[in-house]
Fold:
Amino acid sequence: MTALVLVINVGSSSLKAALVDCTGANVWSFHRKRTSNESISSFLDHWVTPELDCYRKHIQLIGHRVVHGGEHFTTPTLITPDLEHALQMLIPLAPLHNKPALDGLAWAQRWGSDYPQWACFDTAFHSMLPEAARTYAIPKNLRDQGLHRYGFHGINHQHVSEYVVDHWRKKGGDASQLRLISAHLGAGASLAALKGGYCIDTTMGFTPLEGLVMETRSGSIDPGLILELIRQGFCETELSRLLQHESGLKGLSGLSGDMCEIRESALAGHPGAVLALAVFRHRLLQQLGAMAASLQGVDVLALTGGIGEHDEALRIELNESLKWWGEFETVVVPADEEGMIARLCLRQHP
Structure:
């Protein structure tokens, strides 16, 4: 058996792990939802440790997905105590993701202390955003603190980009001019406008709260609404819970954030579910239009993530609603953050 990369991908409500070989193929994979009261360490000990023991001698390194890399971490980075400290400081920027990722790292260091551990950042792929796309219209002294748009889901957007670019070349197309929108639609949702494989615009911003309507996250809202809630007495903790956990599809429907449940309830005439679908679709079409404007046209729309890959009704709706784009191709690209993390780590590992 060739050398393997163990990838640990801890999400806000689920955990994925995979063993990936040098060709990018999964030798073993795991994906399971976890409950909020279940620690990452005990979860991994119970579900993952028994599966990995027979592969120990084949593992070359361990790669971790970290959502927010902040101002400085823009490439896969070998994990050191200094890096761990820096990542602790970034937890408030992506609390649903960075803290669980560090918990996963702590488990991996205990389970496999002899293996090099690498961090791959969701923000890295967007680190070369044009200045106009990354800059908020706030005073310079605040911009100088690193308060700008970072973008997220970059690991999977990069996977989608490399996949589509490869297929475009095989068809004889000029990949350097390819205008691609990668639509990562799942519990978290974001769009990326990619020109010739490089990101020139995206919908998420300083944190993963900006942009599209998500499972329990609000997406973009008027900052004045936040000021109003503060005037009403909401504290920072309450606002965070409201915008991160109680909004989005869940807040709109009054049911849950699960798109399958919302579609079933909407067909049954549930008014909250009908509204949730309408708002989700409106914001998605609005932001797709914005990405198309940044690209000055679209050659390929790639759908990925749980909703993007499996919601056939949405695919049909998008193809109907986006006819004004003219001729473009819609493709479905299964998300593969684990494979991309392995490839990124192997590109950097000596």
